[in-house]
Structure formats: C-alpha cells, structure tokens
Design goal:
The N terminus is likely disordered. The N and C termini lie far apart (about 50 Å). This protein is of the alpha+beta class. The protein folds into two domains: about 150 residues, Jelly Rolls (Sandwich), CATH 2.60.120.10; about 80 residues, Winged helix-like DNA-binding domain superfamily/Winged helix DNA-binding domain (Arc Repressor Mutant, subunit A, Orthogonal Bundle), CATH 1.10.10. It has ten helices and eleven strands.
Length: about 240
C-alpha cells in the first residue's frame, strides 16, 4: 500500500488549480472539468528518497507531479536499482496500471521534496473516455513512452560505460538555440548516483566521465544543471571519436 503522507498546507492547496492548468494533460479542460478534477484530487507531500509508488501496488489512480523531481526505477533480481526515467513538474504517472487494471510495473522515488496530486481511478477514467483533449494527449504520451523505452534499450546496449553516460547526457540536454556552436543545457541534473542508476554503472564512473567533459572544455557544471558548451564535442565522445 502506498504511504499516506501529511496533507498539503492551506497555502499550497490554494495553488492547486494553478498547478493543474500547467499540466499538459489537463491544460485544455474547461473550467467545469478543472473544478471537478480539483475537487477529486488528493494532494500528497513526500520528502527526498520517499517511495511515492511501489512496484506491485494496485493501479488505483493517476498521479501528477506538481513540484519537485521524481525518478522511475526498477529493481533487478540481484537487488540493483535501474533508473528508467526522470519526472519533472507537469508529468503524470501510474497510467499503465490504471488503464490495464493491473499492478504497477515500476517504483517511483522522490529525488527532492515533492508535491504530488492523486486522482482516483473513476475520475481519471471518466476523463479518458469523455475528454477528447485528454485522450489525444494520452495517445501522444504513450507513443512517446514507447520511443523512450526504445532509446533506453539502445542506450543500455552500448558496451562502453563512458559512451553510455555521454549518450544519456545528449538525450537530456535541452537545446537553447538551433544555431551551430551555441551551448545547450541539461536542466535539473540528477546526482551522480542517479545517473549511474539510469545507465547501469557506478557513481565513480559517472564522476570521472563528467570530470573528463570539464577538462576537455566540453561542459561546465553550474549548480543543478550542466552547460554543454560544445554539443558537437559531446556527440563525438558519445560516438567514440
């Protein structure tokens, strides 16, 4: 059973409707639909490293990340945690178990203190069936999920660990401009251990790879982000040049 955290403070409760409008899945709902979602949604708080969803749990609702950062993980038979993807505000999760009426196929862990909205299954399923915009966004999301899973399998098939790390960073970077030579940025950079979990290697290997990028002038770490000053150089390293 999922943990039952403390209720959100009143000040945060007043911000829920603002949060809902920022969620792409719900952005096109009319005011009446948003009010219904807000009335049915339960707000939950978790602290860093809390388990938000447990693998094997029942798919009893749809969850939305309102603030903070989460990581979807799976655990191998020998007990190793494998990161599947990172979640940022506006993302939703738990949809597969909900739609299939099955158990959850992975766990979700808080990377920071987080605020999560839980929408019970009946309300979520009503949206899927009666809101064209929600249905359209859900189809797009599922298609993107298939693509991400394919990219993850390709990433994990790379034998060289450094190349896996560089390829992962390439996938994370957000282009700030289409102009050649302009730096790109990896926002909300995960910890070295979290990156290690994502690419199935050790924290020390991630640290060495990031140090190499800094020494070569390809990247610069800045608080919780990584500035890729030479995207083409990162691409060459990922491809083994």
């Amino acid at each position: 059973m999922d943990p039952v955290p403390a209720a959100a403070p009143p000040a945060e409760e007043r911000q829920i409707q603002i949060h809902l409008r920022k969620i792409p899945l719900l952005a096109e709902l009319n005011d009446e639909e948003i009010i219904r979602v807000k009335q049915d949604m339960r707000i939950r708080q978790y602290i860093k490293r809390d388990i938000v969803l447990q693998k094997g749990g029942h798919g009893d609702g749809l969850m939305f990340l309102l603030s903070g950062q989460l990581q979807v993980i799976d655990v191998t038979e020998d007990g190793r945690a494998i990161g599947l993807r990172m979640l940022t505000p506006g993302d939703f999760f738990g949809e597969i178990a909900l739609i299939n009426n099955s158990t959850r196929s992975a766990s979700v862990v808080a990377m920071t203190d987080v605020l999560v909205g839980f929408l019970p299954a009946p309300t979520a399923m009503h949206l899927f069936a009666h809101s064209p915009s929600v249905a359209r966004h859900m189809l797009k999301h599922l298609a993107q999920k298939i693509q991400r899973d394919s990219e993850l399998r390709a990433l994990l098939s790379i034998n060289n660990t450094a190349k896996r790390i560089y390829t992962y960073l390439m996938q994370m970077q957000k282009q700030q401009s289409l102009e050649p030579g302009v730096p790109s940025v990896v926002e909300n950079l995960p910890t070295h251990q979290d990156i290690a979990n994502m690419v199935n290697t050790s924290r020390e290997t991630v640290t060495r790879a990031l140090l190499t990028l800094t020494q070569l002038g390809i990247a610069q770490k800045d608080a919780h982000r990584l500035i890729i000053r030479d995207p083409e150089g990162l691409k060459k390293l990922a491809h083994g040049a």
